[in-house]
Amino acid sequence: xxxxxxxxxxxxxxxxxxxxxxxPLEDRIRQALGSAKAFGAFDVSFRVPDxxxxxxxxxxxxxxxxxxxxVTGHGWTIAAMHLRSLARFDFDSVLLPYNFHMxxxxxxxxxxxxxxxxxxxxxxxxxxxxxxARGPWAISNxxxxxxxQPLEAxxxxxxxxxxxxxxxxxxxINTAGDLSVLxxxxxxxxxxxxxxxxEAMAAMAGDTRMTSLFxxxx
Length: 218
Description:
alpha/beta, four-stranded parallel sheet, two-stranded antiparallel sheet, disordered N terminus
């Protein structure tokens, strides 16, 4: 009998303590920013709008908790998505991928140019990522900390960086997150003299087998 009683007790559902009430929005934002500062992060994300329909970061900026609000994204459709975002809110910065391979796609380039035109008119910062992306790692051995395979030869990095600096002089280039590649990117930027030709870029893309990070273009 004792054994059966114990089995019944073990099967009895436990009553969990109710979750604590959510912190006020201001406290949650302060907590998130404090964590970001402590752990060396710079981006802190909230659902926008939050579950109550309130645009959390807009309220935070109105209360002086944050100064700037940006929108980010990846993939072939992100430039078009940014156009929709910019139509709804006046962001302080826009971040999206850009390199020779992506610029060679007419649809992506058109949407990117439309985003750039709006940002130039509003004096909104534009940040380019994946500037030296070669392609996915696939079956290659991962020799760098980036989630994608970067260009490695200094001459190739020079062309990739100079391609953006020469064609988009008012766009910020976000460097790759790898300490062995970073010095090569900075070196390339310090020696900028002009944009390489499309022929030189196409030859580099062919030689390095540059491909898409995001699958087939939409």
